[in-house]
What does this fold into?
Amino acid sequence: MAGDALELVTTSASDTERVAAALAAELRAGDVLALHGELGGGKTCFVRGLARGLGVVGDVSSPTFTLMQTYPGRIPLYHLDAWMQARGEAFLSDGGAEWLTGEGVAAVEWADRVKEWLPAERFEVSFGHLGGERRRLALRWTGAGERLAAVRRAQAALESDQKR
It folds into this structure.
C-alpha cells in the first residue's frame, strides 16, 4: 500500500504527547515530520512527545526565534520552526536543509511555508482544534508501506482510557 494514514482525537496535552511518543517508536534517522495547524494547535506539544519517545531528556520549547533546536536522544531530534517564512527559507537555503536528511529526525512546524524543501517521503501531521484541549490529529506517511503501527496501538489505548 502506498502511504499510511490515521485520524484520531486527543482530549488533553498528555494524550497528544502519548501519540507522538508512540510515533517516535516508528522513526528512524532521516525521517521528516511536516507539522500543520494553526497557532496553539498542538504542534510543539506533539514535538515534546516525540522528544520523550526518542529518549530526549530536558525541556523542549518552540524554536520560533532560534529557528532550530537540536536535542540529543537515541536518535537526535531537530526541531525547526518555519513560522517566519522568509527566515525559515533563508535558513534552509544557507545549509539548514542538511538537517532534513541528517542523522536524526526532523520535525518542522509550519511546514507548509517551506514545503518545497521537504522530502517526498515524510510524515504529514495536521492538527485541528475541537474545543478545550481536544485536538483532531491526522497522520499520514507519504511513502510506501506501513509506518503508523505504534500509533494505532496508542490510539487503541487512548480510546480505552477515554471510555473509562
